[in-house]
Write a structure and sequence with these properties.
This protein is an alpha/beta fold and 462 residues long. The protein has three domains: 18-34 and 104-194, no CATH class; 38-44 and 61-100, no CATH class; 200-462, HAD superfamily/HAD-like (Rossmann fold), CATH 3.40.50.1000. The chain is 43% helix and 15% strand. It has helices at 2-12, 18-34, 69-77, 103-132, 140-144, 157-168, 180-195, 222-232, 249-255, 257-265, 270-273, 311-331, 355-373, 401-412, 447-461; strands spanning 38-41, 50-53, 60-63, 97-100, 201-204, 236-240, 276-280, 285-289, 295-298, 336-341, 344-349, 385-389, 394-398, 419-423, 440-443. The strands form four sheets. A seven-stranded mixed β-sheet has the order 9-8-7-6-5-14-15, sandwiched between helices. It has a four-stranded antiparallel β-sheet with strand order 10-11-13-12, with helices on one face. It has a two-stranded antiparallel sheet with strand order 1-4. A hairpin with a 4-residue loop joins β12 (385-389) and β13. α2 (18-34) runs antiparallel to α4 (103-132). The longest helix is centred in the first third of the chain and has 30 residues, at 103-132. Homotetramer.
Amino acid sequence: MTSIYRINYHLRAHKRDPLIEFIKGMLLTPFVLHATPSTAMVDQAPSSTLPVRDNSSGSASHATPYMTDTCTSLAETQPTEKSDCDSSSASHDTLPFVLRRNSDAIRANEQRYAEIMGDVEALIAEHITMQEKGLEKYSRLRRLVPTIGTFFTPLPLRDAFLYSNAKYAIASRKYIPPSFNEIRRTLNTAQVWASAPHLKFITFDGDMTLYPDGQTFEEHSHLVGLIIRLLQADLTVAIVTAAGYTTETARYEARISGLLKGFADANLSPEQLSRFYVMGGECNYLFQCGVDCGLHYIPENEYSSHQVWSDHDLQSFLDVAELNLWQCVKDMKLDAKVLRKPKAVGLVPYSPLNREQLDECALSTQQCLLQYNRVSTPDQGRIPFCAFNGGNDVWVDIGNKLIGVQMLQEHLHFSPKETVHVGDQFLSTGNDIATRTACCTCWIINPEETQGILEELLQRLS
């Protein structure tokens, strides 16, 4: 049994976030114990009637009643949720009892969930206190979630949950417990609320954060106007992307052409334009927006004090990564090629690969390079790197977004507390997860969620 458990854990660990799984497990207890439906036989007396559609005629008729006063009052207070009392085909003969949903029970369940989120909020606050004393490894949260990292702000999780519950009626559900994505979105809301008073610098991933994977930033995107408003609110904005086109400015401009055109149409001032940056290749190529609404390359020696790796070390490191990716192609019989760049190597499929194949390539290459570096994490060793599943391909980059964000923070004089990174790749096979060591983060899954995050942020800023 132990051996099976370990195998399953290791097979699935790269698809999970430890903190979210911890919160999810805590919320599952009140769901199991208190959110189960209670049943009650219906009085046969026809005190009221429920309209039921006659499929043959298309008209509404009146069936023997089974909707209780409890159901009626809930329908009035929860207009957006389909109650168990609603039915388009059921009659008294097919549903002899009602699954009651009591409003008092819903409020009690909401309170239980809120208390748990408040307790997690307190654990994070205690972890921050211990962190400031250099004793974070002794915090209660670290004992409960051993892989927990650094927090730069407290998180108002209780209020954020109540806000989410008011929108999605999470506590009203009887059959589906709070999900991974609902907890992730609640954490995002809490982070936005906590960061807004201090925020000076916000960074974004590119693909699947600002625009669909492999596509360009379109002019009609709602995010264009939102990013313009961030610049007008005196924030500094940067896109930190894995896309590595070396110093070819035109290729980066093509990917964000709609945004740059939006800048021109908005008549932003030279000072506002100068607060927009693009960091390409994770941390290798920096560009700044100019008065012409175009990007201009900044040589590395003007902004970076980080160690410069020798070309021999870089190429030897990439040789190892390339060899492992070719081995993956051979072992799994993948219809793909391996592409080499000056500071990156990637596996690019000719036909789509499934997620398991991409994850295997990313994780096996990551482990191979960790052994080569003789370290336990990608940001250690002579050459930090990032081996990640890009959604449709797999890439190994020299450096990572942790270094990219830290370079920008050092160059622009912003602290981790004043910085938020928004991205979609926060699993262990992603390339945004490294930024958690450098700043506050928001984990989204598509550009629509990024839009929601920025709308919440701008409301708080105003």
